[in-house]
Amino acid sequence: MTAPRPAGAVRRRTTRGRTWRRRPAPRLMGVALAAARQGLYVFPLWPRSKTPCLHGKRRCQGTGVCADGHLGWEQRATTDPDLIRYWWGASPTCNVGIACGPSNLYVLDLDPDHGEDPPPEWAGARHGRDVLARLAEQAGQPYPGDTFTGRSPSPSLHLYFRVGQDSTLRNTAGRAGWRIDSRGRGGFIVAPGSVRRDGVYTVARHAPIAPLPGWLVPLFTPPPRPLPEPVEFGDVRPLSDTRRQRYLDKVADTVAHAAPHTAHDTLVRAAYTLGRLVGGGEFTDDEARAALHIAAQQRRIPTGEADDAISDGLEAGALYPRRLADRAA
Ligand SMILES: [Zn+2]
Predict the structure, then answer these.
(1) Closest CA to 19 of 3, 37, 39
(2) 153-166 pLDDT, tens per residue?
């Protein structure tokens, strides 16, 4: 005779016959819930990988949560326990990503040498940890190791630090020194407890997350963007409004009629092309934006995604100004 099946139980065969056993809460769901309790914003990664498993911009259908524009993992990362139970209930083997930006987190990623020699300025270093120790010494500061630290299977060390809500620090790769990367706005880190084919992410140091020491900030701050060279346009005859409009229409048309799967890239390219001409004073920013938005709508690119793509393209293009009459450019 078998006992009635309790809620949430799974059938299991044992040597003594068939029994019922309560289904354990999925382990990685527990990892995600624990991180969220600390105020860290989590989202699922594919099982045994560090790739986000929420759809990306290019695959966006513009439905559901993305009805008003695409939301990426950074926007969808959450501390809501119900949403976490829903996500990991559906996919219990998903790894746990922590979105650094919304979590007000800055994480230093210290890597081993991977069998390579360091450049001369870091001679003798075997790990990003050695480089960080030298940077601390140069700054006359203690080694900033007294904070929550994770270890990846590589094995890299992840030093977690709190930053203010207004922090603009982003990801870096080797900017501060050899084998030192970092994750901030626009970046994420794999939570300890997650699993990869080559091993498990573990906690290397159980400690509260310390505030980011002030002396580290300049090391991870990008240098100011160089101003573009001033351009001499000489005495070019302005083009007629008709020709300018025709050109605008032609560029916008490439977006409206972009082949499947190329709409996003085409929009960025078109915005870049027009951005250069806005920089050269051929069109106003408003004219370019309006034409691109109309084309994006015709091509059914979600508004939020179109906004980002158009702004990125216009901004990049404005660094290389040109006029329509500059045939060679
Ligand atoms: Zn989407």
Answers:
(1) 3
(2) 989 999 999 999 99
Residues 259-307: tens digit of each pLDDT: 877 888 889 889 988 999 888 888 888 889 888 988 888 888 888 888 8
Predicted TM-score (pTM) of the model is 0.64
Residues 6+ apart with CB under 8 A from 188: 43, 52, 73, 74, 77, 97, 98, 99, 100
Say if residue 175 is in the same domain as residue 146: yes
**Per the domain annotation, does 16 fall within a domain?**
no
**50 and 96 assigned to the same domain:** yes
Q: How far is the CA of 69 from the centre of ligand 1 (A)?
A: 7
- Residue 228 belongs to some domain of the structure: no
Domain boundaries, position 122: 27-220
Q: If you measure from the C-alpha of residue 54 to the centroid of ligand 1, how many angstroms do you get, rounded to a whole number?
A: 8
Per-residue pLDDT tens over the stretch 218-260: 999 987 765 555 555 555 555 677 788 888 888 888 888 888 7
Determine the distance separating the centroid of ligand 1 and the alpha carbon of 53, expressed in angstroms. 12
Q: 307 CA distance to ligand 1 centroid (A)?
A: 14
